[in-house]
C-alpha cells in the first residue's frame, strides 16, 4: 500500500528538519524569530500567510525557524496522508477516475526525501487530471498550499 510510502517519506523530511534544527543550535546559523515574522518571510500571498498562521497556531511565539519548518512539514504530511486515504476510499468504492489512481500510485511522495521542490512537483503531479470540483481537487490544492508554506519556512533555514 502506498500510504505507508507517503508516511515514510514524510518521516524522512521530518528527520531531516530535526537534523537541521540540531545543526542550527550548534552553528548558530538558524534565525530565531517570532512565528508571525516567519510567516511574513516565508509566504508571498495573503492566503499563504493565513495558512501559515493556521499551521503555526500552536507553535511557540518565538523559536528557531527550524521549529516552524518542522511543524509545517508535519502539517503537510498529515494532509498528504488524508488525500491518499481519500483517493484509496474513492477507488475502493468503485471509482475508475485515472487521476485518483495516480494520487495513490504515481503521485510518488518518495520524492519528498530532502527537497521541498520535489514535494511540490509530486503534489502537482497528483493534481494533473483532477477535474475542478472533483473530490480530490480541493484536497490536492490544500496539499499544494501546505507544501508551499513548508517550503517557505524551510527556506528560512536552507535558503531558496
Structure description:
It is built from 7 helices and 2 strands. The chain has 160 residues and is mainly alpha-helical. It has one domain (2-158): Butyryl-CoA Dehydrogenase, subunit A, domain 3 (Up-down Bundle). A two-stranded antiparallel ribbon has the order 1-2. Helix 2 (35-42) runs antiparallel to helix 3 and helix 4 (65-92) runs antiparallel to helix 7. The N and C termini lie far apart (33 Å). Mean pLDDT is 76; it is low at 17-27 and 108-113. Residues 1-26 form the signal peptide.
Span of the ends, CA to CA: 33 Å
**Beta strand count:** 2
| CATH class membership | Mainly Alpha
What's the overall average pLDDT, rounded?
76
The name CATH uses for the topology is Butyryl-CoA Dehydrogenase, subunit A, domain 3
Report the sheet with the most strands, covering strand number, pairing sense and barrel closure: 2 strands, antiparallel
Number of domains: 1
Helical stretch tally = 7
Cα radius of gyration in angstroms = 16 Å
Element pattern in H and E: HEHHEHHHH
Please describe the structure with a list of short key phrases separated by commas or semicolons.
Pectinesterase inhibitor domain-containing protein, Butyryl-CoA Dehydrogenase, subunit A, domain 3, signal, two-stranded antiparallel sheet, 7 helices, 72% helix, mainly alpha, 2 strands, 160 residues
Amino acid at each position: 500500500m502506498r500510504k505507508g510510502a507517503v508516511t515514510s517519506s514524510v518521516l524522512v523530511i521530518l528527520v531531516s528538519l530535526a537534523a537541521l534544527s540540531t545543526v542550527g543550535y550548534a552553528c548558530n546559523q538558524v534565525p530565531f524569530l517570532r512565528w508571525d515574522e516567519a510567516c511574513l518571510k516565508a509566504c508571498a500571498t495573503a492566503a499563504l500567510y493565513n495558512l501559515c498562521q493556521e499551521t503555526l497556531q500552536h507553535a511557540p511565539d518565538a523559536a528557531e525557524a527550524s521549529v516552524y519548518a518542522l511543524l509545517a512539514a508535519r502539517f503537510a504530511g498529515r494532509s498528504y496522508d488524508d488525500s491518499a486515504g481519500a483517493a484509496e476510499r474513492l477507488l475502493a468504492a468503485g471509482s475508475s477516475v485515472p487521476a485518483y489512481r495516480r494520487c495513490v500510485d504515481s503521485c510518488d511522495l518518495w520524492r519528498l526525501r530532502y527537497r521541498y521542490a520535489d514535494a511540490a512537483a509530486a503534489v502537482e503531479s497528483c493534481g494533473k487530471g483532477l477535474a475542478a470540483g472533483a473530490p480530490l481537487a480541493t484536497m490536492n490544492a490544500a496539499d499544494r498550499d501546505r507544501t508551499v508554506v513548508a517550503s517557505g519556512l524551510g527556506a528560512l533555514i536552507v535558503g531558496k
